[in-house]
Amino acid sequence: MNLVAETWLASAMMGAAVGWGYFALRGHLVRALDAVENDLSEKLRRLRASTRGLRRGIVVWLVAVAVVFFAFWLLLDSLVFGALGAALLLAGPWWLIRRMAERRRRRIEDQLADAMVTLANAVRAGLSLAQAMEILASQCPKPLCEEFRQIVGEYNLGKPLEQTLREAKARLRSENFALFAAAILASHESGGRLNETVERIAGSVLEMQRLERKVQSETAQARKSAVYMALAPALILVAYYFIDPANTMLLFTSVPGQVMLAVAVVLNVVAYFWAQVVLRPDL
Q1: Structural domain boundaries of the chain?
Q2: How far apart are CA 233 and CA 150, in angstroms?
Q3: CATH: 6.10.140.1580, 1.20.120.340, 1.20.81.30, 1.10.10.10. Which one for 104-211?
Q4: Could you count the other beta carbons within 10 Å of the beta carbon of residue 47?
Q5: Higher-confidence position of 18 and 39
Q6: Could you tell me which residues come within 8 angstroms of residue 241 by beta carbon, excluding any fewer than 6 positions away?
């Protein structure tokens, strides 16, 4: 049997195996796909991005992962690098969206204390709660103003204020905004001095932010060191290539070398994220 026939036979057997696996595990695959879609939908809503066509995008994403895997395996004859590339491509977009959503949440929390002070001053000046919220929607910086615009817009369209605040609290996943919404809801339902309550919460949030900034400034050098340590193995590998190119290329051409290189990449990525978790202030 010639090489072309063997290639076609192997491809047919692989396709049959993939098809059988799909029909055998399609229930689990559908549930996993639903879980991924729900997770990404929640993060995209926090980013105020459209979720239309998300399922189709996830399928295209998975197809691209499979193409990368089989390209490395069949064309470059590297099963190890195929698995590594597929894993990185599979986790990369999800991590990027998660990081963008977390960064937006932190920006909102940083802006929320000043917004609380503005709302308290507006209420003290005699404005109603709805009018004070409109001031926040027009004067707060982005991205916080976008959230208040949605709250004010939904309230003006007839949705109860309690429902709009609860939906915003569920959407933002921010502890500071949850305190802010709880104060407004308590004042709206049972009365009380809203401005004093909001001012006390704003003072607590400002103090918490001051402590977080202090911790971040004291751990800034350690975070930079984590980045440098994550980049060091790649630079060392390049240096070794110029010193001993023949043995260095064995890491890419031989199976044991590919396994060692893949394990090193995985451990390096895990170490970097572990360092980020350890150095992240949690007050």
Answers
A1: 104-211, 219-283
A2: 47
A3: 1.20.81.30
A4: 14
A5: 39
A6: 248, 249
The candidate with the shortest Cα–Cα distance to 125, out of 194, 42, 22, 57, is 194
Q: Could you tell me the pTM of the whole model? A: 0.74
Question: Tokens for 2?
Answer: 């010639």
Tokens coding 275: 């360092």
Question: 195-253: per-residue pLDDT in tens?
Answer: 777 788 888 888 887 887 888 788 788 888 888 888 888 898 889 888 888 888 888 88
Nearest Cα neighbor of 180 from 125, 109, 130 is 109
- Note the pLDDT tens digit of each residue in 101-137: 888 888 888 888 888 888 888 888 888 888 888 888 8
Structure tokens at 138: 């027009």
